[in-house]
Amino acid sequence: MSYVDKVIEDVVKQNPNEPEFHQAVREVLESIRVVVDQNEAQFRRDALLERLVNPERQIKFRVPWIDDNGQVHVNTGYRVQFNSAIGPYKGGLRLHPSVNIGIIKFLGFEQIFKNSLTGLPIGGGKGGSDFDPKGKSDREVMAFCQSFMSELCKYIGANIDVPAGDIGTGAREIGYMYGQYKKLSGLFEGVLTGKGLSYGGSLARTEATGYGLLYLAEEMMKCHGYEMKGKTVTVSGSGNVAIYAIEKTEQMGAIAVTCSDSDGWVYDPDGIDVEALKAIKEQRRERLTEYKKYRPKSEYFAGKGVWSVRTDIALPCATQNELDLEDAKALVEGGVIAVCEGANMPVTAEAIRFLQKSGVYFVPGKAANAGGVATSALEMSQDSGRLAWSFDKVDTKLKEIMVKLYHNIDDAAVRYGFDGNYVVGANIAGFEKVVDAMNAQGIV
Ligand code: NDP
């Protein structure tokens, strides 16, 4: 059996009931097979792939907190410190009822390669909890965040592990966690990113993932002879990534006609009104059913359906495995040119294969949404230098990073004879740097 197949088989055996983690490992290892085959004897001897797929450390802890009625609840907290070969662990904290160790491991594993692709010195990690901030009062969210950080603070630090936001963890949650870290450690240091501007946050971090996604998409479209202006774009999600992806789409002269949440989706033929979306989601924390009040000509549909809309570019920006084979078929039928993942692993493996076979340009999340973590690394640089860069300076750096990243993954794909296959390109380009650092540092 080939080395890659053996390691995939071991991962499935040793990590039962973690399908998302299996899916992420399979996708990466399958696509770096060509590199592994060329170095098989050395990689086997050094157990390189086994070291890559086993996190350096997995932390699981109890998070008790008290609700507004005096009832005590207990959630589970996680932090997976996956790989520190190229820098301190870096990756978000997800707060969502679906969180379990397999989800955190899949995200942490992906994060290793994504962080490597940014060209910045950050290792891979991820964390979170099965706590659901939705429907909780601010005080309840604060109680949870303080309890969560009381334990997490033992394992993180500005040069050790620097968590950030993710699903369910926005500016409010980061603020409460930062306050608790500072109280317990006595340190005012850049231990979290996505902070508010008044206490060490970076301008353009809020926008970075969505903007970065569009900078990469624009560069890729340009290299294939298309311009963004006038293109129809469908977006799923209505959180941080989706909102700023829609905003940048419209700034580029394209038109974003959809957005969604976990209950339903909106079709607005005149283009999603970003200010209305921000008011609903960022300020009032409401559901998308409210959107029609702002835009009477729009339509709201319960359930799934964004991918049934004809589009030039599809940007899944909600959650994992939200775009399946049937959706991919509908997109191809409608003449889609490109699919770029704003979320982490939103497109199923089968759907990716179908899109690629159909000649659709497909960019995986570890490349397409890397603008968020890249800007987090810029926030870390500003914190350690006690600096606050202008919006334009951060945004310019973000754009440079995303354009370079696109060419990097494109070149890696070409080098190994997989022209236009950005899954292979991203995995190989991310893998090469990490492996080089792991080899240089010996068996640790
Ligand atoms: P938010 O919490 O701000 O928004 C998430 C959006 O996705 C919401 O609209 C939410 O709807 C929807 N959603 C979440 N879970 C589900 C589900 N199970 N089914 C359907 N819809 C769902 O998160 P972000 O925008 O920050 O993150 C979105 C994705 O992007 C995630 O995969 C995340 O890991 C990834 N990402 C985020 C980065 C960032 O900087 N924020 C960086 C890189 C990747 P509802 O409100 O109903 O829950």
Overview of the structural elements:
- The protein is an alpha/beta fold and 444 residues long.
- The chain folds into three domains: 1-54 and 421-444, Glutamate Dehydrogenase, chain A, domain 3 (Glutamate Dehydrogenase, Chain A, domain 3), CATH 1.10.285; 56-188, Rossmann fold, CATH 3.40.50; 206-358, Rossmann fold.
- It has 18 helices and 13 strands.
- The protein has helices at residues 3-14, 19-31, 33-38, 40-45, 48-53, 101-117, 138-152, 171-185, 205-223, 240-251, 274-283, 291-294, 325-333, 349-357, 365-368, 371-384, 391-415, 422-440, and strands spanning 57-66, 72-83, 89-95, 123-129, 161-164, 232-236, 255-256, 258-260, 264-267, 299-302, 313-316, 338-340, 361-363.
- The strands form three sheets. Strands 1-2-4-3-5 form a five-stranded mixed beta sheet. Strands 7-6-11-12-13 form a five-stranded parallel beta sheet, sandwiched between helices. Strands 8-9-10 form a three-stranded antiparallel beta sheet, with no helix packed on it.
- Helix 2 (19-31) packs across helix 18 (422-440).
- Bound molecules: NADPH dihydro-nicotinamide-adenine-dinucleotide phosphate.
- The site of NADPH dihydro-nicotinamide-adenine-dinucleotide phosphate has 23 residues, from helix 10.
Number of helices: 18
The CATH class of the largest domain, by name, is Alpha Beta
CATH superfamily membership of the largest domain? NAD(P)-binding Rossmann-like Domain
Structural class of the secondary structure composition? alpha/beta
Main sheet makeup: 5 strands, mixed
Q: Radius of gyration, rounded?
A: 21 Å
Low-confidence stretches: none
Total DSSP E strands? 13
Large-scale geometry? globular
Instruction: Please indicate the count of domains.
Output: 3
Give the strand order, joined by hyphens, for the main sheet: 1-2-4-3-5
| Amount of beta strand | 15-25%
Bound molecules: NADPH dihydro-nicotinamide-adenine-dinucleotide phosphate
The CATH architecture name of the largest domain reads 3-Layer(aba) Sandwich
Distance between the termini: 27 Å
The CATH topology of the largest domain: Rossmann fold
Helix content: 40-55%
- Mean pLDDT equals 98
